[in-house]
Amino acid sequence: MDSEKQISDYTPKPRVLGICGSPRKNGNSDILLDHVLKGTMEHGIATDKVALRNLQFKGCIGCECCRKDKICTGLPDDMSEVYPKIIESQGLVLVSPTHNYNITSWMKAFIDRLYCFYNFEDNRPRGWSSQIENQGRKAVLVAVCEQVDRHDMGFTLEAMRLPIEALGYEVIEELPVFGIFDKAKVKEQNDVLASAISHGVKLAKSFL
Q1: Could you tell me the pTM of the whole model?
Q2: Alpha carbon distance 207, 44 (integer Å)
Q3: Is residue 51 a part of any domain in this protein?
Q4: How many angstroms from the chain centroid is the CA of residue 24?
Q5: Which domain holds residue 49?
Q6: What's the CATH number where 143 sits?
Q7: Do residues 141 and 173 touch, judged by C-beta distance below 8 A?
Q8: pLDDT exceeds 70 at position 3
Q9: 156-167 and 105-112 helices, crossing angle to 10°
Q10: Is position 1 within any domain?
Q11: CA 77 → CA 1, 73, 112, distances in Å?
């Protein structure tokens, strides 16, 4: 990414960045993310994948440096490697298991670090806009829950959807997966895996 160019001036490429918020390696979230990305790759869309558990990063500390710098400079950590991928990718896939009726702490920290993409005015309450809105960005969300009742998934999907819609993404598909806990057990759910692939296909076609 050209450091001299404003983020809002970028035209993102028709590629997809997948973000896994699970602490468990090679578990259900990883498998579902791989199947969504498989669907996009089948239609010639390049993909990249980030497992948040492998990054050394913190949640937003509210230093407000990004209000001036337009990117996070208050926390020099592994998120600095992820920001260019977000800016340059038109597609985003977020996958998180349900932890205590919500997304995981890794996914929450990641979403909070997207705060740097906002422009804020000085009025109260502050008006705001997004540096990455109106760029044709689209997203797919996947949530995995051990229980079988949607109530027990809590706010998992909403906690991903609302922040990225505010940033300017159109969420074109959501996949709630219920009754899955044992590691990699989702491999036995052919219908769920097929749905994940089909959501990836729809995401890919939205760029064509």
Answers
A1: 0.96
A2: 10
A3: yes
A4: 17
A5: 7-205
A6: 3.40.50.360
A7: yes
A8: no
A9: 10
A10: no
A11: 17, 9, 14
